[in-house]
Write a structure and sequence with these properties.
This protein has about 450 residues and is α/β, with parallel strands linked by helices. The chain contains 13 helices and 18 strands. The protein is globular, with a radius of gyration of 22 Å. Its main location: cytoplasm.
């Protein structure tokens, strides 16, 4: 049997390889790292998480991304299995020890006899075979050129940013305190999953002034891409209005200062554990394009972080993606070259889980093809089906931008009440319908 070849061992490529091997089909997984490095990656491990360590909400009743978690678990997804094994307390979110997670994914793939991991860059798209391109947003320049040549279009792009990571022992816990928003979580560890740094109004205003005045990374000439709204640099948010941050990542609601319970903070900066040892914390929502020197000065203005030591500072990078509605069919094949499937963030989905989900789906489709079968996508009443439907035809091609999974992609339920007040009934109805339809789709394979 001819193997399926996958370019890229990120979250999507790793998941695709696992799904194909589970079907009894051999896989060759090509990964250019560490021989060819990227700005954002630090290791040669498969499924390295770059921007944060969170898979977001794990609520599969009231949240679309939680429903996507459920669907991937039902399909025996490797990414979710390793995330569950290496999860950290994070309130209602699924956060992981990112180094241990990537190492475990790598070992699992290496130990699978049907998977061969082949190091080195694939610089040109192949002319034939059964291939999945899962190179992610940081596709190498040479391969990106090959993609542009084949599709006849310029790659679309947006800018993505990375949040800094702080050494836990440099956080002043006489000022900061441990608490999840609204004390969310069933265990004490979950209820105290975040470290909170309070600001009064004067401190907040001074912080905003410093953010706006700080030296920023400048883009190269000709780089006109915008930002993905779900991962905006904090200084860009501040430029949209001085109150934007305290209604976003610095909102103080649901938190009570353990040191001064009668004093309401004007704004709160939250940090989330980044490893199982609890020695590293990332600053939640603090993606930034400030230059390194400016970052240390500005972030040390945060009460509790005045002596912060940084294990990693933030940064910004350019992400490329396809205009998938015009280029991919519903089997995720490239229309001009159907022997090529695309998966992951390069298809125009945004987020770790969404990228891995597209890898899962592309892997199952490629595996089915290798076995002489055809696999249709899940119904678009499911989270996975709604997402792939959006990128392969549901979105408007002229305004196509990266998209997280959300209930707005699901077909409406006419009998359910609309608006904010209807969500408590509508969202569970969406997820129950999705579970029923997804289970039927899996059972038919």
């Amino acid at each position: 049997m001819e193997p399926v070849n996958i370019i890229g061992a990120g979250l999507a490529g790793s998941e695709a390889a696992w799904q194909i091997a589970r079907m009894g089909v051999p896989v060759i997984l090509h990964e250019m790292r560490p021989q060819v490095e990227t700005f954002a990656h630090k290791t040669g491990d498969c499924a390295e998480m770059v921007c944060s360590n969170s898979f977001r909400s794990d609520d599969d009743v009231m949240n679309a991304v939680g429903q996507l978690h459920w669907e991937m678990r039902q399909a025996g997804g490797l990414i979710m299995a390793m995330a569950d094994r290496h999860r950290l307390p994070a309130g209602g979110a699924l956060a992981v020890d990112r180094e241990a997670f990537a190492a475990a994914v790598t070992r699992t793939l290496q130990d699978e006899p049907l998977i061969t991991i082949r190091p080195g860059e694939v610089a040109d798209l192949p002319d034939a075979g059964n291939w999945i391109v899962a190179t992610g947003p940081l596709t190498s320049d040479r391969l990106a050129g090959s993609i542009r040549g084949l599709t006849g279009t310029d790659a679309l792009a947006f800018f993505d940013a990375i949040a800094p990571i702080v050494h836990a022992d440099t956080i002043d816990m006489s000022i900061a305190w441990e608490q999840s928003r609204y004390d969310k979580g069933e265990t004490e560890a979950e209820q105290k999953a975040y470290i909170n740094c309070p600001m009064n109004r004067d401190e907040y205003e001074a912080f905003i002034d410093a953010l706006l005045a700080a030296e920023k990374t400048e883009f190269h000439e000709g780089e006109t891409a915008g930002y993905f709204d779900g991962c905006l640099p904090i200084e860009v948010m501040a430029e949209r209005g001085r109150e934007t941050l305290r209604h976003g990542p610095m909102k103080p609601v649901g938190l009570t200062n353990a040191h001064k319970p009668q004093e309401k903070a004007y704004a709160v900066v939250q940090l989330r554990r980044d490893n199982a040892l609890g020695t590293l914390y990332n600053i939640v929502g603090f993606q930034t394009k400030m230059k390194y020197g400016a970052q240390t000065q500005v972030f040390r203005m945060i009460p509790g972080l005045q002596n912060a030591g940084f294990a990693r500072l933030g940064g910004i990078h350019r992400n490329s993606f396809l205009n998938s509605p015009t280029l991919l069919d519903d089997r995720m094949r490239l229309r001009p070259a159907p022997h090529l499937r695309f998966a992951g963030q390069v298809t125009g989905v945004e987020g770790y889980v969404e990228s891995a989900a597209m890898g899962l789906l592309a892997g199952r489709m490629a595996g089915a093809q290798a076995l002489g079968r055809d696999l249709a996508p899940p119904p678009f009443t499911t989270a996975m089906g709604a997402l792939v439907n959006h990128i392969t035809g549901g979105a408007e091609a002229k305004t196509f931008q990266p998209m997280n999974v959300n209930f707005g992609l699901f077909p409406p339920l006419p009998e359910m009440r609309g608006g904010r007040r209807g969500r408590k009934d509508r969202y569970p109805a969406y997820t129950q319908r999705a579970k029923d339809d997804y289970a039927a789709w899996l059972a038919a394979q």
